[in-house]
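To the wet lab folks,

You asked to see what we're planning to order before we commit. Fair enough. Below is the target structure as C-alpha cells, and below that is the sequence we designed to fit it. If anything looks off to you, flag it before the synthesis order goes out.
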C-alpha cells in the first residue's frame, strides 16, 4: 500500500482515538490563526485541507472567514457532513482543487507528504489561490522522515522540515513566505507558515 494511503487508513480506522486525543489549541496556534485571518479580508473564502474534527474551521469561521472543509479520510468527511457542513472529499496529492480561493489553511496535514509530493502540492495550491491570496500550513520541525503509531496505534508517515528547505520549496512554488514561526511543543517542535501567492 502507498505510504500516503496507509496514513489515511490509519485515520480512517482510528478516528475515534484521534478525536479523544484532541486538546484545546495552544496560544501559539491561536496566534497563527490570527496571522492567517489578519492577512485576509472579512468574508474571504478559504479551503481547509484535512479538516478532521473541524475545530480549526469553526474558529476561522467565527473570525469572519468562509471555510470550505475538506478531508481525504472518508470517516472525517462523513462526520462533518453529519454535523451539517459541506465537505469535499479531497486528497491534495491527486484530487482537483477548487480555483479562485482567497486562501488555503492546512494545520498538520501537509507533513504527511514526501518532499516531492509536497513540492507538487504547493505548485497545485499556488494555482488554486488567487494572486495575493494566502497559504497557511504547519510542519513538524526536524530532519528526515518517520513512521510511528503514537496516538492511533496504526502507523502514519511524517516528513520533518527545517526552515531553509521549506522556504525554498515555497519559493519554488511561487509563494512569498512571511517570517516562519518556530513553536516549541510538548513532544515536537513546529514550523508555522503564512505565505502570500
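Sequence we intend to order:
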Amino acid at each position: 500500500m502507498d505510504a500516503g494511503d496507509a496514513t489515511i487508513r490509519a485515520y480512517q480506522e482510528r478516528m475515534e482515538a484521534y478525536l479523544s486525543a484532541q486538546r484545546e489549541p495552544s496560544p501559539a496556534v491561536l496566534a497563527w490563526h490570527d496571522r492567517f485571518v489578519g492577512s485576509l479580508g472579512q468574508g474571504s473564502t478559504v479551503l481547509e485541507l484535512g479538516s478532521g474534527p473541524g475545530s480549526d474551521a469553526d474558529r476561522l469561521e467565527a473570525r469572519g472567514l468562509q471555510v470550505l472543509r475538506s478531508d481525504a479520510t472518508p470517516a472525517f468527511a462523513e462526520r462533518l457532513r453529519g454535523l451539517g457542513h459541506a465537505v469535499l472529499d479531497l486528497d491534495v496529492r491527486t484530487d482537483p482543487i477548487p480555483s479562485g480561493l482567497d486562501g488555503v489553511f492546512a494545520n498538520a496535514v501537509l507533513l504527511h507528504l514526501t518532499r516531492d509530493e509536497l513540492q507538487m502540492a504547493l505548485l497545485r495550491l499556488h494555482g488554486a489561490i488567487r494572486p495575493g491570496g494566502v497559504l497557511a500550513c504547519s510542519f513538524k520541525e526536524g530532519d528526515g522522515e518517520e513512521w510511528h503509531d503514537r496516538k492511533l496505534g496504526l502507523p502514519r508517515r511524517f516528513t520533518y522540515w527545517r526552515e531553509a528547505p521549506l522556504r525554498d520549496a515555497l519559493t519554488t512554488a511561487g509563494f512569498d513566505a512571511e517570517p516562519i514561526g518556530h513553536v516549541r511543543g510538548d513532544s515536537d517542535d513546529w514550523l508555522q507558515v503564512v505565505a502570500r501567492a
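Structural context that might help your review: Helices lie at 3-13, 15-20, 27-38, 55-62, 74-82, 115-128, 163-172. Strands lie at 45-48, 66-71, 87-89, 101-106, 129-140, 145-148, 156-159, 176-177, 181-183, 190-196.

Thanks,
Computational group
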